[in-house]
Structures are given as structure tokens and as C-alpha cells.
Amino acid sequence: MSIQFDEQAKLLTLETRSSVYQMQIDTLGYLRHLYYGRRVGPQNMSYTYRAYDCGFSGNPYELRRERSDSPDLMPQEYSSFGVGDYRLHSVAVVNADGSRCASLRYVEHEITEGKYIIPGLPAVYDNGGEAETLTVTLRDAVTGLTIRLRYGIFETLDIITRSAELVNEGTAAITLEKAASVCLEFSRDSWDLLHFYGRHCLERQPERAPIGNLITTVSSERGTSSHHHNPFVIVCDHDATEEQGDCFGAMLMYSGSFKAELERSQTGDVRLVMGVSDTGFSWTLSPGERFHTPEVILSYADGLTALSHNYHRVIRHNVCRGEHHLKRRPVLINNWEATYFNLSEEKLLAIAKEAAELGVELFVLDDGWFRGRIDDNAGLGDWFASEQRLPNGLHALIEKINALGLQFGIWVEPEMVNEDSDLYRAHPDWALSAPGREPTMGRNQLVLDMSRADVREYLYSCISTLLLENNISYIKWDMNRSLSDVYSKALPPERQGEVAHRYVLGVYELLERLTADFPHVLFEGCSGGGGRFDAGMLYYTPQIWCSDDTDAIERLRIQGGTSYGYPVSTMGAHVSASPNHQTGRATPIETRGIVAMSGAFGYELDLTKLSEEDKTEIKRQIKQFHEDEDLLHGGLYYRLSDVSAPLHYVAWQMVSEDKSRSLVNLVLRAPRPNAAPLRLRLRGLDPDALYRIDEDTPVCTGAALMCGGYTFPQMLGDYPSAQLHLTKIEDGRL
Ligand code: DGJ
């Protein structure tokens, strides 16, 4: 049992392989957080909390004489606004009488086998029958607001998930102004925050800084999880490294506006509150109605690498779903950077022919194939093939591409509409826009109101028709602007604060329906590159286009930053042209291949313009990718360098779970004159096993390679790279 209840001490203890999470129901009914961290034996951790009142902290009415304790200092599992806790709160309400208080006290708890689900929202699922669920019910006695805190425990995965269900069990409406997914407390220590920021073409750049006394917020108000901030944060010991130190991850499984807030209490403890953003949010619960928060995936590990491994494992095996998530992914060619909007059947077929000869498996037709889409000012919403672009029709094109031995995939951007489209002309009210105002534009397009069932029905009909009438095995689901003017004509004024979240629920509902009805189709998520790279989308699309920046050198930081939370198999990565279209940088094809192979691999360049040498190299890369795919996508990932440090190189390594094979990747960002050969200490090997590397290197023990390292030959030129294949010698042990 990974969940235990100690009746006498009123302790609830959750255990995973390497961590313990403990809470206690106190005599007043507060659900206190006692501990989360490395295992500490069968210990009641309540001794760590000494109640006191540090002044100007509210006391519960029951303690008015003693003034001995305050929710303002007490670590809590779900904090509420208005009743004496002045720190970040998890829930804020407006009650029917106008009061803004909710005092949450314990009612009951239940331990059940299996993992809870969250209606309408993606959630980590139980794969091996190991999960257990704890549900703790808290209630505000005055209004009847009832909150069920759910904890999913995955013992061997070292994962604890959390979500809250808020139910109005009273008799009058309650408006939620905030409903977070998690409140997590870290006792006084020296903590750092590691988070992932960026912009279009520069996503998930790691930044690490000490948590000081300012309230820190990592958030997106864009209606999507965004390029700007990723809904994943790590709180770690100031001294934590890749290899050791307390590291806690919190990953929100949500694709809309979010907030992760951190605050030190007056006495130095750190509270993290994370969930749907409360900016512009309100949700009315009539009696009997309920609201489910998205899930937060928590993990504790000793060292950043172990934390990443926990997330990689859970995302690959318990977040991504469907036929494809563990299957070999087809090597694809995407025509976007080859043609942009300048496409014709003839050009597409020429690229496809080359692709087939090189060993590519899937041809993806990107933007520009549908009616009215001559540039990015028109056509979105009209998901019917353009007669001008494809005079013989889409079906004929697909047949010709299939005849070359390639599968066919297609780009769509379902959530969007151009004013210049038949859809908008017929249904202007289907776009988000506020009454009496010109809408804010982004890429000259509007956002469809995905909270509306009629909009979703239209989109389902268009996409399912495409899939039923054509032999399509892949869909790239793009989304190319942030939300604004978030107003739905289908909802009354008092419910407009619900639209942003209902939008996300609508996207999930449509994706759920399509992925269930077309299980053979591989969906790839995309939002102007990696603007919606989150665990929510990964539940429907097992890979996401990582960035619109395809420059291999830039990708080192983008993919390296992404690797803290997300596995290689989820990161769409393509070899593109040199000089690169985003940066103008020239990079060798070998280096572009090495970087893209550490991802859901493909090509995105005009294959008809390649030299014979490049063609030979591409054939070699595809062959190698097939040989190494298990290692690349299923192996354990080690960062051998800090991608955000000003180092002249970036290196990373994959090791098979059984440690019998490993692949080391090295790219020089800047060659230096007269530099000593680079020596790297490898990681994750079996110390006692013997490994063969290449002809020039003697067989070495894992211990030697991990302690003494491997010295690379000198590398010169523009952005050179190297790969080492390590193979454990059969029965070769010391
Ligand atoms: C943004 C995507 O990230 C690109 O790969 C491409 O599909 C364009 N949209 C097409 O408009």
C-alpha cells in the first residue's frame, strides 16, 4: 500500500519508491502539509512544525484566547483566501452574500485502488495497475463549498499527481475567482527555482535563480501554455546538481493560461501554488455544480537528472496514449521550409520522390493546401483542398505519394479562422471577440470559440471527412496566435470569466473525439513551433513541433531546456536547410542530423536541391536513426553539459535501460584555437561492465568512462559534432 492512514495521529502518508509525502488532520480540521522529500522511514513528521503566532497573523476563532497558531504560518494542502492566511491562496470565492471567505476543514478521506480520472481533462493514467488514489474532502461549513483533493500515487514511477474537485453542496451560488490545482510547501532552506522561459523561435530556455522574498510568478495569460513560460517548474536545493540534491518538479497538465506562484512566508517557508490562471477567471457554481482543476504532476528526486528521468518515464508511458506513443515514429519530410506557400502538385511530388529514394517514410503537406490559402491572410476555417493549388485534387496527390511508398500527413489549424474565409462569412459570431470592439488580430486571423459545441461539431465534421476520404496517417495540429478578446457570444455576461478555460476544454474534447475515432492517425501538436508544449497536449499528440527555429545550434538550448521535463520522443525536430532560414547560419549536415535525431526525427528542406554528398549523408542518418531509435527515444537521457552555461560545447548522452548501449552526442558551438582536447565524463553506465567504443579506443570499464571520462579528438571548423556509440561487451565484466 502506498497510502497509509494512522488513525491515532491522524496522519496520511503517501509513499513512492524514493519519496514520502505526509499530511496531518489537526484538531481544528486543517489539513496540514508535513513533509515531501526523500524517504525518512516510518516517521511521524509532525514534530517538525511548532505552532506559534508571529504577530499580525490571523488566529482561528477556536484559538482566540491562546493565539497559539495561525493558518498564516501553518503549511497547508489547500489554502483559502479571506480567513487569516495572508500568503498565496489556492482558492478564492465570492459567496452569494458578497463575502469572500472560505474556511476549509477536513470532513473525510477515502483510499481507493487505481488512478482517478478528471472529467473533460487529460490526466496521468495507470498503465501497470500500480496507482492508488487518496481523496480528502474539505468543506466550508457556512456555504457548503466542498473540495475534494485528489492524490494519485505511482509508487514505482516516483510520481504523485494532484487535482481538486470543487462542488457547491450549499443552497446558493458560489463564484470561484481562483481554483488552483496544488499548494505545496517547502520548509525554510535555501531553494532555487528553475523555470523555462522564451519566445517564438526560442522556447524553454532554462533559468535558475534563488527564491528570495519577492513573490515570483511564472505564468501565461495567452490562452495557451505559451512560448513565453512553460507550465513546468523545479524547486531545488541551492546546491543541487544534475547528480544530487533535493529536486521537486511541478508540471501542470494544461494547455491554457496558467500560474505558478511562489512566496516565502514571514518566517521563510516557501509556498508554491499552481493551476489555471486566475487573471480574468471566474466560474459560477450553482448548487450541485462542480469544477475540476487540471492535474499537476509532482515528482521528487535526488538530482536534476533523476527528476528528468521520472518525468520522461511518466510522459512516455502514462501521459502519451494511443497506437503511436511507444511505436517507432516514421521519419518524415515536411514541405514548409521547402516551399512555404509557393506549392504546387509538381513541386510536392518532386520532393516526395527524392524523399522516398532517401528512405523517408512520411510526407507531410504543411500550410497552404486548402481553399483561399495563397498566403497567411486567408482561408483558415475552409478545410477543403484548393482547386488552384491541387487541380487534380488532394486524393490524387495522396495516391501518387502513397505510390512512391510514402505515408501521407497533412497540416491543419482547426482553432482559427480568417475573416477572408467562407466560414467567417457564414458564422462571424463563431470567433472570439468582444461586443462593439474591433478584435485584436494575430497573424491576421481570429480564434474560433472552442467553448461552443456547434464550432466543435463543424471542425469534427471537416477533419473527420478529410480522414475518411483520404489515406492520411498523420495530422499536424497547429495553432498560430494567442487568445485575446476572450468573449463568447454563446454565454451570458456573468459567465464570460469561464470562456478561456472552456476554450481549453473544447480543444480537449475535439482532440479526444478525433484521436478516439481515428486511432491509426499520428497527431503532432504545434503552436508556432513549441508555443503549446505541455503535458495536456501530449495526452492527445505524442509529439509536438518543438520550435519554429530549426537552426541546429539554437536547437541545442531549445531541446536541452525541453529535456528537463519532456522526453526526446515528444520533441519534433527536423534537419533543415543550410544556411538556416531563421538565423542565416551555415551548419554541417552531420551536426544538423545529430541534433534532429534527438527528437521525433524528420527533414524540412527542399530535397530536390541537395548535393550528392548530402544525399548520401541523409541516407546514412536515416539508417542510423532506425538502428538507434530505441536508444534515442526510449533510453535514459543525461545532460553532460549545462545548455545555459556559456560553454563552447553541448553534450548529451542516452543510455539503454539495461545499460548495454549508449550514445554520446557532442556539438561544438565555437571551435577555439589551440584548445586542449575535450574530455567528458560519461554517465549512467554500468561501472563494472566493459564497453567498446571504436577502433581507436581500448575497451574501457563503465567506471573508467564515468570517472576518467573520454577524450575527443580535436575538432575544427564550423559547428563540428561527434557521436560515440558504446556497446557493452557480452559477459564482459571485471
Ligand atoms: C507554424 C508552424 O510552427 C510551422 O511549422 C508551419 O506549420 C507554419 N505554422 C505554417 O503556417
Report what the structure shows:
This protein is of the alpha+beta class and 734 residues long. It folds into 3 domains: 90-318, Beta-galactosidase, Chain A, domain 5; 332-634, TIM Barrel, CATH 3.20.20; 649-733, Immunoglobulin-like, CATH 2.60.40. The protein contains 12 helices and 38 strands. The model has no long low-confidence stretch (mean pLDDT 96). The structure holds (2R,3S,4R,5S)-2-(hydroxymethyl)piperidine-3,4,5-triol. (2R,3S,4R,5S)-2-(hydroxymethyl)piperidine-3,4,5-triol binds at residues 336, 366-367, 411, 478, 480, 526, 528-529, 545, 548.
Short summary:
With 734 residues, the protein is an alpha+beta fold. The protein has three domains: 90-318, alpha-galactosidase from lactobacil brevis (Beta-galactosidase, Chain A, domain 5, Distorted Sandwich); 332-634, TIM Barrel (Alpha-Beta Barrel), CATH 3.20.20.70; 649-733, Golgi alpha-mannosidase II (Immunoglobulin-like), CATH 2.60.40.1180. It has twelve helices and 38 strands.
**CATH T-level topology of the largest domain:** TIM Barrel
- Report the biggest beta sheet as strand number plus sense, adding barrel if it closes: 10 strands, antiparallel
Query: Strand content of the residues, in percent?
Result: 25-35%
Mean pLDDT, rounded to whole units?
A: 96
Give the distance, in angstroms, between the N- and C-terminal Cα atoms: 39 Å
Unreliable stretches: none
**Fourth-tier CATH superfamily name of the largest domain:** Aldolase class I
Number of DSSP strand runs: 38
What is the count of structural domains? 3
Which small-molecule species are bound to the chains here? (2R,3S,4R,5S)-2-(hydroxymethyl)piperidine-3,4,5-triol
User: What is the name of the CATH class of the largest domain?
Assistant: Alpha Beta
Helix-and-strand structural type: alpha+beta
Q: Provide the CATH architecture of the largest domain.
A: Alpha-Beta Barrel
Rg? 27 Å
What is the general shape?
globular
Give the number of helices. Answer: 12
- Percent of residues in helices comes to 10-25%
